[in-house]
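In response to a reviewer's request, we include the raw inputs and outputs for one of the modeled complexes. The three entities were modeled together in a single run.
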Amino acid sequence: MSGPVTRFKSPVRFVFDVPAGPTVSRFLAAVAEGRLFGQRCPTCAKVYVPPKVACPRCGDPLSPEQLPVKETGTVTSFCVVNVPYEGQTMKLPYVYASILLDGADIPFPHLVDAEPADVRMGLRVRATWSDALGPTLESIRAFVPTGEPDAPFDAYKEHL
Amino acid sequence: MSDVMRAPYVLEYGYRRSTGPVIGQFLTALRDGRLVGGKTARGRVIVPPTEYDPETGDAVDELVPVGDAGVVTTWTWVAEPAPGQPLARPFAWALVKLDGADTAMLHAVDAGEPSRMKTGMRVRARFRAERSGTILDLEAFLPEQAS
Amino acid sequence: MGEREIAIVSFAEVIVERSDRDDCELLLPVLKRALGDVGLTQQDIGFTVSGSSDFLGGRPFAFVMATDVLGAWPPIRESHVEMDGAFALYEAWVRLQHGDLDTALVFAFGRPSQGPLHDVMSLQLDPYYMAPLRPDALSLGALAARAALDAGLTSEDELARIAGERRGVPTSTSEPYLREPLRAHATPTLRDGAAAIVLAAGDGARALSKRPAWIRGLDHRIEPHSLGARSLTRSVSTEQAARGAGALGFGADVAELHARFAHEEPLLSRALELPASTRVNPSGGALAQDPVMVTGLCRLGHAARAVHEGAARAIAHATSGPCLQQNLVCTLEAR
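The model returned the following structure tokens for the whole complex.
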């Protein structure tokens, strides 16, 4: 303790109370019932799952109509997580992927429960729901391979 | 909008600050129970010291001892201290110009009640028994007549 | 080299007590209104810049999400400052001075209702000597207020009077101190909000607005961070910015000052050398409504609106940092 001071710890901690907003709340309420839906941009017709407030491409609010989407989809990209960090629910190594649901135009990130070596672009997957549903995407435990043939690259190349 | 969901969200950062040469010397001295200031090229003494003269930007590399007592230049009263603040009981925030310093530093004054606070009053530093090299090694200032 | 003629042609704001919306939901109608009022869409805008602080909601890079409402495709020229939107407007004004772009959209958003704002603001303090002590923003405001009182620049009676006028409610020095010598009435009324301003150059501005609020001058200056290393009773940076913006002797009908605490009004009025004929903060200012990170941009908006609605000249001021560390002054006029 007698050497010169070169560093000190200065931790900060704040607790926030964050509103999800009406758009996200509607979607999370559906997820809590084990249901997914998308919303369409009235300008470019792209379907977003989860819905956004506005289409990032066009800047227009999405149409309010809740469009059904399938629970199956395609892995458009993925990475294998080998690094531990706080809050992880999966055993290392695990797969974090971009998943394009059938009926959606924009992929969203989720977990793939499969051997990392078996995961590839185009892999067909299906959502498996958690036993405990709630207003969170953790209600989907993970996506698992369906066993179907891979989707051809052309089927999702516009959705990367 | 009663359908809107809300959730708590905790932001936590375990910042570790590197001190650099000038601030490092100040915090080292503080840990050893001493107060020092930075002497600028124009002869002003900046407490707490920065690596530069806040008015000219010139480098400050000479550190000089300053007194551990000084004068309150302004203050306010905190009736309900927040976690992490220097004292857990009601205290005053004050700017204190130490003897030998040309600038004032922010810290707590352990005055007990606001009626004991006054601009221009003299206060003296009280160091924590256990010190680690942060600004909180100075626990608070005490009104001089009470110390 | 002469400066290019640039005017504020449109202003929209939304301010609520506590928003249940997310940033995009709050912003979307404000952006559409600011653009729509002058018949523009995002595609007509040359440069877009925003001001906000992710620390208000605790989510790093939250500001990136806000670009969802812009329709930023094909990619637009876009920028962001982690400051009040007024400082984003400064960047837009400088950008338009380059001469190759003719319009700019400036917006800001802030929802302090999400967290302990006055405590969170300690994160803007120097990380060695001040932030580890965790002083809240109200306490720092109170230190400056006491300095102003001790220097005889104002009185507790005057603070109550200013607060009462801005808030439009009766105030009294018999109310308890929140942070002695500040009573709650002399501190900001935190609000959630968003605002947007459209800037246009030259004839473009004349085509968009019957009465553009021309920017005669715009400047901002900063002082040392440490409260003990600068004057708390004289705002030197405001004086300098006022000179730079041509605010001294400007003879404004209206001045919109970003005074978060009542004692800052007389301090700023003095630095700007405002004559008695200038109406200060007819909007109520931050004492009435303080959508943090938006409040300064709203001062520019309200000053411009005064010109749009008939005033000959107006001054807007915005601030950043603890106890008026950094100050921006803008002079606006009809031509």
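As requested, we also summarize the result in words. Helices of chain B lie at 20-31. The radius of gyration of chain B is 18 Å.
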